[in-house]
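Quick question about two entries, pasted in order.
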Amino acid sequence: MSTSDSFASTQLTRRHHHTRTIRVDAYERSDGLWDFEARLADVKSVDFRLASGLRAANEPVHDMLLTLTIDRALNVVAARAESLSVPYPGYCNTIGPAYGQLVGLNLMRGFRDAVKTRLGGVAGCTHITELATLLPTAVIQAYAGVVLDTRDASAAEEQSVQPFQLDRCHALRTDAPAVREFYPRWYRGPAGQDATGCSGAGATDSA
């Protein structure tokens, strides 16, 4: 049976056991900074016995909140970590101050490596550290069109700086068909025309 068949089978039954929820909310502040609240929760649909005692169904095993204040240049200017529900009360929830080490980092300059070095393993909380590593792409999404110029097509005719999102994933390589279609000004592939509108000598369309 293939993987797709196993999902489609009408002979299978399933029992729900666990839900992990990760959410990131972005807030633009009146002082020009942004607050990003990243929250992770683990909830079981069955009673769960921990070394610290029984956790009843639907009560969170983990509920972690990491708040970073970021400037428009993607620098972390403040950080706060909170452990709202933990499996080992009085122990897990003492690590919050360690996340002050995120202050001064830039989300687009070695951020994840720095997080791992400063807060990986026993130096931090597995789940709060995981939240930190998710924030760079979440911040970029929040900043898109507000802080970062992501205009395309006709809106980009007067644009002098390449849109931030280009050359950051496989679909938006500057030699990819998607860029030729949606960001023709910045296309660098063999499409017969370059970004200036000049014909490319000997170019062939491979799309």
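Here is the second entry:
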Amino acid sequence: MLEILDTWDTVFTCFQDGRFSLKRWEGYADAAMPGLKEKVLEDTADYDFRRDILPVLQNLNGNRERASEAHESFLEAVGGLNEKLEQKLGILPDMKIVFYLGLCSGAGWATELEGCPAVLLGLEKIVELSWSGRMSMKALLYHEIGHIWHFQVRGGRNVSEAAVDKGLWQLYSEGMAMYIEQLLCGEKHFYHQDKNGWLEWCADHREELYREYLTRLERGESLQPFFGDWSSLHGKSDTGYYLGGELIRSLAEKYSLRELAALELSEVEKALKAAAFSADKRGRQV
């Protein structure tokens, strides 16, 4: 069962005389949902608030028109969502979907609140990343739903703390979420990250990217440059989402959706090695 929590009406009570107030935000978060304040504060405890978070919040306050657009896009995205999920995924995940003002934990965050799976949509990051449009909002929501659906169908099978397994899991889980995002959007090669030639560049450098991912994985080097808008590889952010999405799409040729959700990491590693040395240099397929 889906539960939608929309806090739009109280978002801007967190600002006083044009300045963000952490004290007001704490009251807003407490009133919105039990556990939300603690969850977000714990996640952002290591950030430099004035340097990393406050400018993004002030940017939101100065872009209320875009914030309003994001809210309208959210309302459209959740409309008829139950039916879409049942039709496309065959199962309706239990979760809460929360549209809220965060502290830069992410535009989308698949997590748990009070023991219940939850998708948190952070308005401040959505506005910062210019993801306020209807298609961007749907893609963001579908991606996070993809994570929760994957975890629920997989049944909580744990991944070891070994660096290789964690690196494979990140590629696999983000690939699954990307694949489900595309399934729900109805476009095989849709990537919400595709701006300024991003998808074409990824396709042109596909084999090179797979090889670099595999090399870093085997050497125990950081894979962070492949994931997150704050990092980049060869000047491009989020290339890991492309690699994961394309990897899962190739595996979907022989596995059903539910089988994909239950793959062993050894199968993912095998597919990664094959992609690293035989990726289609023609790039994007039609």
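Reply: Residues 211 and 272 are 9 Å apart (CA to CA). Confidence is low (pLDDT under 50) at residues 279-286. Hope that helps.
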